[in-house]
Amino acid sequence: MRPAPIADPAPLGLAAFALTTFVLSFFNAGLVSDGGEPIVFGLALAYGGLAQLLAGMWEFKNNNTFGATAFTSFGAFWLSLFAYEQFFAGNVPAANAGDAVGLYLIAWGIFTAYMWIASFRVSVAVNIVVLLLAPTFIVLGIGDAAGNETITHVGGVLGIATALAAWYASFAGVTNKTFGRDILQTHPLT
Question: Which of 31, 116, 154, 185 is within CB 3.0–4.6 Å of 130 for a Cys-Cys bond?
Fold first, then answer.
């Protein structure tokens, strides 16, 4: 007997990723005062972290290796960013913080680059999200490592574009499933 299907968790994972990335990217782009940046940490913990982690676990149940790996990993990214900012950042000497955070972000960029290759079997919508995310991580990492605010602002703008693409993919998934037909195109690649 086959287990009962569950709802597609991808729109939830994409929405959680999009909203959290959107808010943080406004700070990274310098479009809002960094005095409000602590608002990101609640999002990173609850929505970007926990909701994406759950979406990843549900993707395992759906036998979706790409979705399980992507959502679980990016949920863990947000949880680790929250943990670093809340518990560990004060333990990193100021002279080393830029290099440490830069390495962290560039490593996430490398992971995202190989996930981009795998996304060629998902959809054009998801492929665009991952295509934008890899340089976002790398540019932000370079900005932190170099201590260059202009580069960080460019990474923030890339992050906003990434978030908008992820919101589209999420919106398409929810809308198409709810209406029972393709209203918004994602162009599946499988």
Answer: 116
